[in-house]
Amino acid sequence: MSIHEIFAALENSALGLSIAQSSVLFPWIECVHVLSVAATIGMVFVMDFRLLGWGAHRSSAQKLMAELLPYTWGAFAVAAVSGFLLFSSAATSYAANIAFQLKFVGLLFAAINMLIFHFVGARGIMRWDEDKRPPAAARIAGTVSIICWVFVIAAGRWIGFTG
User: Fold this and answer.
1) What end-to-end distance do the CA atoms of the chain give, in Å?
2) Mapping DSSP to helix (H, G, I), strand (E, B) and coil, where does residue 57 land?
3) What is the pTM of this model?
4) How many CB atoms within 10 Å of residue 82?
5) What distance in Å separates the CA atoms of residue 150 and residue 60, rounded to the nearest whole number?
6) 134 by DSSP, 3-state: which?
7) Which residue in 97, 104, 101 sits closest to 80, CA to CA?
8) Is the CB of residue 11 less than 8 Å from the CB of residue 92?
9) I need a labelling partner for 13 at 20 to 30 A (CA). Which of 7, 31, 48, 86 fits?
């Protein structure tokens, strides 16, 4: 079974058809998706601004991340589930949409950046955790994260205009 056939089956499933044919399901799911994406990005930006040395100086970077990450992952999970539900309503169209594809490229780069920071850049966090101006590696990770998420937001908005 090809990926196109899988997407077509999803689109023609009871779930996909219910969402596509309902006058209220898609808009409500989209509202949940937009709000959960906003919550995710808002919390990510608070952490990124701390990495840039632009804010949250009353909190160590580790403490801030420990406090925000569970909520960030929760919001991201809601965004992923709601996004999947939206995708299921027109999977073949979305999969062929260049803005949709670019959104996932942005998400991939954001994930890679996060992994590099957490497994490489954050190793020495104890040395600079309380500093108002974190080291270059942390500032670069924060900058790349902001760029990736702005790209994800922009691509996400373009999906509806390029389909």
Assistant:
1) 25
2) coil
3) 0.89
4) 20
5) 25
6) coil
7) 104
8) yes
9) 31
Residues contacting residue 154 through CB under 8 Å, at least 6 positions apart: none
Name the strand (E) or helix (H) holding 91.
Answer: helix 91-96
pLDDT tens digits for range 67-105:
999 999 999 999 999 999 999 999 999 999 999 999 999
* Angle in degrees, 0-180, between the axes of helices 61-88 and 3-11, rounded to the nearest 10: 80
Two tokens at 97?
């949409």
Close Cβ partners of 56 (under 8 Å, ≥ 6 residues apart): 46, 49, 50, 64
Cβ proximity of 110 and 47 under 8 Å: no
What CA–CA distances, in Å, run from 118 to 65, 112, 114, 141, 142? 11, 10, 6, 10, 12
